[in-house]
């Protein structure tokens, strides 16, 4: 019996590794294609020359100053949002949970909206101020939701967080609707584009500001994979197994908020990745978090890099917001998986 | 969570299911609610940009005289608006209650069926390619869009082996909603019609006309009666699919009937007032909190409370900043949020 079980697990693990390898290869391919996509084409040989530092000045400017930072950012936010969603789904055990439930998108959006509404000019909105504002809005909202759902002697319960999150996010969305109707058309266009999820942080400074969040929080969450497996059994069972449930939930949720808030700050509302990334991963490798978390990171990264590339390429020279493309390519594939699924 | 362990808080390990139902509370809500609704209606007809005396309201309704301006205002603007609000509130609340009961997911509402996204997408197409379509057509098309959206969710959810499980329904709904919303957003950005759509989306019963009510009313009435007839089956489903099957229920049939009812209710509502979110999400929670877990009580009480919420929110929308109107959706959220926060703190695990 023991032997059979372990054999089965080995097969499952091997399959998961195969899936991750394939995803990684796809990401590399997308990376290469993405590097020569844009208004100015770089042929593969140009790319190679530029990468080793012997391209023309113009080529290296385009590649190093515009494209590469953007590609790196799209990989980072894809991974960050998907892992964040994976944590929230795992803890709340609700298939509809995603980072937006913690009020992150609403908080960031409202902050940006307020700023744009009261900022005198439209064209010269300081690009570096927006992510900071978004981050503040997202963190404050998440903190508010935590505070409202915290009860003495009982701590935090996922159900309460989810319900509180809905309420707070709804309140903020309502405030945003009121503001929307008062904006001038060109201001509205700017905000709408931002909300639809555009990666406009095409700058190494944004990469550097995002990197620490991702580089610290994602490994931390991976390290907690086993704890998440236990939490996934449900609160009573996890408590019965002796896990300090409330404390672990709080730590993991804080990590989820940190990841999502940092990502939303540089990308606006790419909401769908956090919902669908983890589900795709779950359908590919199953529910064990040791496999599920890294696979989520990979699916998320792949989704966003492909979406961003398509968004830049399809209607040149104008761009389609990445968030829209993510939903348009991610949703049909997800629906296809859903229709084929057995469970 | 398809592969997550299902948490059957009740009904597992052989214990009998404890029904926590509070018929007294429900009866109180039904009777008190009707009185409150009548009061709200009177207030709603008299207050607004122009205040009208109660006696005049009475006359306008029972001794209508077309030569008096105030009678005209009441008959042509305020009455339809009020009745529309009451109908829409009841419809959205009941649709949400059915969705939450069928999927056992506290985050579910009728929007999940792809209704709002479908209607919004069709509207975006209309605004972009046929600007200036008459209102009548807009309503018709948005209803069609809602139907197509719901049909797609149902179809995709049912394709898989094992049919339409609640989790599949919820996921298919979320994915299709995301897809259609993204397409609408794209169209809106490209054609720069976002703000026009936002006005529609913000939801308002302001422009309700008698003919809309005439078209809507029979459908909604039939759907509400249907919901009542289905309520016992929904209670069973809300205990979990296995339990319902074990009790001999034909779950596939119940789910199909439930979805058709939700489509009629929410589809009509969306077509008339745009996407007023939140009513369908919050009212069922509030009702469950007050009357317990029996859908024979939840459904009628949801209808009453939903009507109350929309009628009073619409009254507030006119009083806040006259003569300008505040978006109805925003006010509903404003009224609903504190309630909902309170509920979330109480947290009874009763889906």
Automatic annotation (TrEMBL), chain A:
Transmembrane segments: 16-40, 68-88, 100-119, 125-149, 161-184, 204-223, 252-276, 291-310, 322-339
GO cellular component, one term: plasma membrane
Keywords in alphabetical order: Cell membrane, Membrane, Transmembrane, Transmembrane helix, Transport
GO biological process: siderophore-iron import into cell
Subcellular location: Cell membrane
PANTHER family: FERRIC ENTEROBACTIN TRANSPORT SYSTEM PERMEASE PROTEIN, IRON(3+)-HYDROXAMATE IMPORT SYSTEM PERMEASE PROTEIN FHUG
Record protein name field: Iron ABC transporter permease
UniProt organism field: Brevibacillus brevis (Bacillus brevis)
Taxonomic classification: Bacteria, Bacillati, Bacillota, Bacilli, Bacillales
UniProtKB/TrEMBL annotation, chain B:
GO biological processes: siderophore-iron import into cell
Keyword terms of this UniProt record: Cell membrane, Membrane, Transmembrane, Transmembrane helix, Transport
Keyword Transcription regulation: no
Gene Ontology terms: cellular component: plasma membrane
Superkingdom of this protein's organism: Bacteria
MF annotations from Gene Ontology: transmembrane transporter activity
Cell location: Cell membrane
Annotated family: Belongs to the binding-protein-dependent transport system permease family. FecCD subfamily.
Protein name in UniProt: Iron ABC transporter permease
Organism: Brevibacillus brevis (Bacillus brevis)
């Amino acid at each position: 019996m023991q032997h059979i079980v372990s054999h089965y697990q080995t097969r499952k693990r091997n399959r998961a590794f195969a899936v991750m390898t394939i995803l990684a290869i796809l990401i590399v391919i997308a990376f290469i294609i993405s590097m020569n996509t844009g208004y100015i084409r770089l042929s593969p040989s140009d790319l190679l020359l530029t990468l080793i530092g012997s391209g023309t000045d113009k080529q290296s400017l385009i590649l190093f100053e515009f494209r590469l930072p953007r590609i790196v950012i799209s990989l980072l936010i894809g991974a960050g949002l998907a892992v964040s969603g994976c944590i929230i789904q795992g803890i709340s055990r609700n298939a509809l949970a995603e980072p937006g439930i913690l009020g992150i998108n609403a908080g960031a959006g409202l902050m940006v909206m307020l700023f744009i509404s009261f900022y005198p000019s439209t064209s010269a909105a300081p690009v570096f101020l927006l992510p900071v504002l978004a981050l503040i809005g997202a963190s404050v909202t998440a903190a508010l939701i935590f505070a409202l759902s915290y009860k003495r002697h009982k701590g935090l319960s996922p159900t309460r967080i989810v319900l509180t999150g809905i309420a707070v996010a709804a309140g903020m969305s309502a405030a945003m609707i009121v503001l929307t109707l008062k904006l001038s058309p060109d201001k509205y266009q700017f905000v709408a584009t931002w909300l639809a999820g555009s990666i406009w942080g095409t700058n190494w400074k944004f990469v550097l500001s995002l990197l620490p969040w991702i580089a610290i929080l994602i490994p931390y969450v991976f390290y907690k994979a086993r704890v998440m497996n236990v939490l996934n059994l449900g609160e009573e069972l996890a408590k019965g197994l002796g896990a300090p449930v409330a404390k672990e939930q709080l730590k993991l949720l804080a990590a989820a908020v940190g990841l999502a808030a940092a990502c939303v700050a540089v990308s606006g509302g790419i909401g769908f990745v956090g919902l669908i990334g983890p589900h795709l991963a779950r359908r590919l490798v199953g529910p064990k978090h040791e496999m599920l978390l890294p696979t989520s990171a990979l699916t998320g990264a792949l989704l966003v890099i492909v979406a961003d590339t398509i968004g830049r390429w399809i209607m040149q020279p104008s761009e389609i917001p990445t968030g829209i493309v993510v939903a348009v390519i991610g949703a049909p594939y997800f629906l296809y998986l859903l229709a084929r699924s057995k469970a | 969570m398809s592969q997550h362990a299902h948490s059957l808080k009740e009904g597992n390990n052989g214990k009998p299911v404890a029904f926590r139902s509070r018929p007294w509370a429900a009866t109180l809500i039904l009777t008190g609610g009707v009185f409150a609704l009548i009061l709200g209606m009177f207030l709603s007809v008299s207050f607004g940009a122009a205040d009208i005396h109660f006696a005049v309201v009475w006359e306008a309704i029972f001794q209508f005289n077309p030569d008096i301006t105030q009678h005209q205002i009441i008959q042509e603007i305020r009455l339809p608006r009020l009745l529309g609000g009451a109908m829409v509130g009841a419809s959205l609340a009941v649709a949400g209650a059915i969705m939450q009961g069928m999927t056992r997911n506290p985050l579910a509402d009728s929007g999940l069926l792809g209704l709002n996204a479908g209607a919004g997408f069709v509207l975006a197409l209309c605004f972009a390619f046929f600007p200036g379509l008459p209102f009548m057509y807009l309503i018709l098309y948005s209803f069609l869009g809602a139907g197509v959206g719901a049909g797609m969710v149902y179809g995709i959810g049912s394709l898989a082996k094992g049919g339409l499980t609640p989790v599949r329904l919820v996921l298919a709904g979320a994915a299709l909603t995301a897809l259609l919303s993204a397409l609408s957003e794209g169209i809106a950005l490209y054609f720069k019609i976002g703000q026009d759509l936002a006005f529609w989306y913000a939801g308002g019963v302001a422009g309700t006309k008698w003919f809309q009510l005439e078209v809507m009313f029979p459908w909604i009435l039939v759907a509400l009666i249907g919901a009542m007839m289905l309520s016992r089956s929904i209670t069973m489903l809300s205990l979990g699919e296995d339990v319902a099957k074990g009790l001999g229920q034909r779950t596939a049939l119940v789910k199909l009937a439930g979805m058709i009812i939700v489509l009629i209710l929410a589809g009509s509502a969306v077509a008339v007032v745009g996407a007023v979110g939140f009513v369908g999400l919050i009212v069922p929670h509030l009702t469950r909190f007050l009357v317990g877990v029996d859908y024979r009580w939840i459904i009628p009480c949801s209808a009453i409370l939903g009507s109350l919420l929309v009628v009073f929110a619409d009254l507030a929308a006119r009083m806040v900043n006259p003569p300008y109107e505040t978006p109805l959706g925003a006010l509903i959220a404003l009224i609903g949020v504190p309630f909902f926060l309170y509920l979330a703190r109480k947290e009874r695990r009763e889906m």
